[in-house]
Amino acid sequence: MNVPDIMKEKMCFSFEVYPPKEDKPLEPLLDTLEHLYKLNPDFVSCTYGAGGTNAGRNTEICKAIKDSGKSIPVTHFTCIGNHKEKIKEELQRYLELGIDHILALRGDLPKGWEGTRGDFDYANELVEYIKTYFPEFIIAVAGNPEKHFQATSFDADITHLRIKQDVGADFIMTQLCHDVDHYQWWVERIRKAGIYLPIDVGVMPVLLKDPTIRMAVSNGSAVPRDLAEIIGRYGDNAEDFKKAGKEYTVKQIFKFINAGIDGLHIYSLNKWKDVSDIVLDCGIRIVNK
Q1: Which residues are within 8 A (CB) of 215 and not within 5 positions of it... i.e. 6 or more apart?
Q2: pLDDT at residue 50 above 70?
Q3: How many CA atoms lie within 13 Å of 274's alpha carbon, on the beta-carbon side?
Q4: Range of the domain at 265
Q5: 125 within a domain of the structure (yes/no)
Q6: Is 60 annotated as catalytic?
Q7: What backbone torsions phi and psi does residue 4 show, to the nearest 5 degrees?
């Protein structure tokens, strides 16, 4: 069963992990995955670095997920520095490994870059290429409830999302958004624009003060008042901040579920223990021992 089919039957549940650097061992992440599998994720997505760095480790991790037989691997794939022949080879390699779900992205431009330095400048071009030459893939695309920070307006951003749908995307995976009320406003907007794809909502657990602020700012995301109060009240005490942040994340997940989401995608930050605590506290999964 593929991810869109799962979403038709129930709320899809998944994690994101990121691969280690080339000079670091895979074993810690493989161990993390074993712990995450106990929560029965429908799929696990694997990122790689800006400019395609760590793409090789990404393939190793996606293969390990596939070989485990415990979840569906979803690979991230960007336009950055990628040319058609290389893309063709890499996509064929994924299919040979049994990896047929892909998150098609433009990708974040490394510092100093102008343009993608590849054959495609936008994610919709990559989506169309994949759909045309590799129709076996189930294609996810990114959605930005608070607008991509480089988009000139919400209208422009939503139009680009509609284009990605129309050239072959199968479902949407959102960037982090702490503001659930704004997320609901965004869903109304995109539905009016004729975007009907199921939406997998990305949730960033609140575990450490500085990364929480940094990731929100770097994505152009708002810090709602209740989260700002946690930062202000507990920001100088890491232990208290993590406890309050976990409680905040659980409440946020409850709000998203009550908003009627098709899927919940938790950015694990490769921290299985903290993420497991959050998932179990939500009651949406029990440990599969």
Answers
A1: 176, 204, 221
A2: no
A3: 21
A4: 3-282
A5: yes
A6: no
A7: -60, -35
User: How many C-beta atoms lie closer than 10 Å to residue 229's C-beta?
Assistant: 13
For residue 140, the model assigns a pLDDT of 98
288, part of any domain: no
How many structural domains is the chain composed of? Answer: 1
Full-model pTM: 0.94
Angle subtended at Cα 204 by Cα 116 and Cα 214, rounded to the nearest 5 degrees = 65
Tell me, yes or no, whether 79 lies in a domain: yes
Is 287 among the domain residues?
no
Look up residue 271 and give its DSSP letter. Answer: -
Of the candidates 146, 215, 205, the one whose C-alpha atom is nearest the C-alpha of residue 177 is: 146
CA Rg value for the chain: 18
Dihedral over alpha carbons 120, 124, 130, 132 (to 10 degrees)? -110
Higher pLDDT, 37 or 20: 37
Marked catalytic residue, from 9, 16, 34, 136:
16
Task: List, for residues 122-148, the tens digit of each pLDDT value.
Answer: 999 999 999 999 999 999 999 999 999
> CATH code at 234?
3.20.20.220
